[in-house]
Design brief:
Elements: H1 3-19, E1 65-67, E2 85-87, E3 95-97, E4 105-107, E5 110-112, E6 115-117, E7 125-127, E8 130-132, E9 135-137, E10 145-147, E11 150-152, E12 155-157, E13 165-167, E14 170-172, E15 175-177, E16 185-187, E17 190-192, E18 195-197, E19 205-207, E20 210-212, E21 215-217, E22 224-227, E23 230-232, E24 235-237, E25 244-245
Parallel strand pairs: 1-2, 2-4, 3-6, 4-7, 5-8, 6-9, 7-10, 8-11, 9-12, 10-13, 11-14, 12-15, 13-16, 14-17, 15-18, 16-19, 17-20, 18-21, 19-22, 20-23, 21-24, 22-25
Length: 248
C-alpha cells in the first residue's frame, strides 16, 4: 500500500468516526501529509500528534486541543477554530487567513514569521509566548489578551483592538497602524520603538508601563488615564494629547 493510499484509508476511517459520533482522539498519531479538509473535527484531540504538511483547510475545529502538536507546513486556512487550545506548539511561518480564532488560547507557543489575515481573534488569549516578525492584518481582535508576551517586530494594520489588554508584556520595534485601540488596557508593560499611527487611542488605561521612543502620528489620545508611567523620547505628530491625566 502506497503512502497516499494509507492516507486516504486514514481519512475514510476518520470520516466513519465522525459519522458514528465517536471521539476523535488522535493523541500521538502520525497524520503527516493527510488531507482532512472540509471535515467537522469538533473536539478532536491532537495532543502529541504529527500534522506535518497536513491539510486542515475549511475544517470545523471547534474545541480542539493542540498540545505539543507538530504543525510544520500544516495548512489551516478558512477554518473555524473557535475555543481551540494551542499549548507548547511551534507556529512559525504559519499563515492563518480567514480563520475564526475566537476564544482560542495560545499558551507557550512560538509564532515567528506568522501572518494572521482577515481573522477573528475576539476574546483570544496569547500567554507566555513569543511573537516575532508576526503580522495581524484586517483582524477583529476585540478583548484579545496579551499576557507575559515578548513581541518583537509585530505589526497590526487595520485591526479592531477595542478593549484589548497588554499585561506584563514587552513590545519592541512594533507598529500599530490604522487601527482602533479604544478602551485598551496596558499594565506593567514596556513599549520601546513602537509606532502608533492613524489610530484611535481614546479611553485607554495605562498603569506602570514604560514608554520609550514611542511615535504617535495622527492619533486621537483623548481621555487617557496614566498611572506610574515612564515616558522618554516620545513624538506626537498631528496628535490630540490634551486630555491625558492621572486618575483622581
Amino acid at each position: 500500500m502506497t503512502i497516499n493510499e494509507i492516507r486516504e484509508k486514514t481519512r475514510k476511517e476518520i470520516e466513519n468516526l465522525i459519522e458514528n459520533k465517536q471521539p476523535l482522539n488522535f493523541k500521538g498519531k502520525d497524520l503527516s501529509g493527510i488531507n482532512l479538509s472540509f471535515l467537522d473535527l469538533t473536539e478532536a484531540d491532537f495532543t502529541d500528534a504529527n500534522l506535518i504538511n497536513a491539510n486542515l483547510n475549511y475544517c470545523i475545529l471547534k474545541n480542539t486541543t493542540f498540545t505539543n502538536t507538530i504543525l510544520v507546513d500544516t495548512k489551516i486556512n478558512n477554518a473555524d477554530l473557535t475555543n481551540a487550545t494551542f499549548i507548547n506548539c511551534n507556529l512559525d511561518f504559519k499563515e492563518f487567513e480567514f480563520v475564526n480564532l475566537k476564544n482560542v488560547k495560545f499558551t507557550n507557543v512560538h509564532l515567528e514569521f506568522t501572518d494572521f489575515v482577515n481573522c477573528c481573534l475576539n476574546n483570544t488569549s496569547f500567554i507566555n509566548s513569543k511573537l516575532e516578525d508576526t503580522n495581524f492584518t484586517s483582524c477583529n481582535m476585540v478583548r484579545t489578551k496579551f499576557k507575559n508576551m515578548n513581541m518583537i517586530h509585530v505589526y497590526m494594520d487595520c485591526c479592531d483592538l477595542t478593549a484589548t489588554s497588554f499585561t506584563d508584556s514587552v513590545l519592541d520595534i512594533c507598529g500599530i497602524l490604522n487601527s482602533s485601540l479604544i478602551c485598551t488596557i496596558w499594565k506593567n508593560s514596556k513599549l520601546d520603538l513602537v509606532k502608533i499611527h492613524n489610530s484611535n487611542f481614546k479611553y485607554t488605561s495605562m498603569k506602570d508601563t514604560e514608554i520609550i521612543n514611542l511615535s504617535c502620528e495622527n492619533v486621537e489620545l483623548c481621555d487617557i488615564t496614566m498611572t506610574g508611567e515612564q515616558i522618554e523620547n516620545t513624538q506626537f505628530i498631528n496628535t490630540d494629547k490634551t486630555i491625558i491625566s492621572e486618575p483622581q
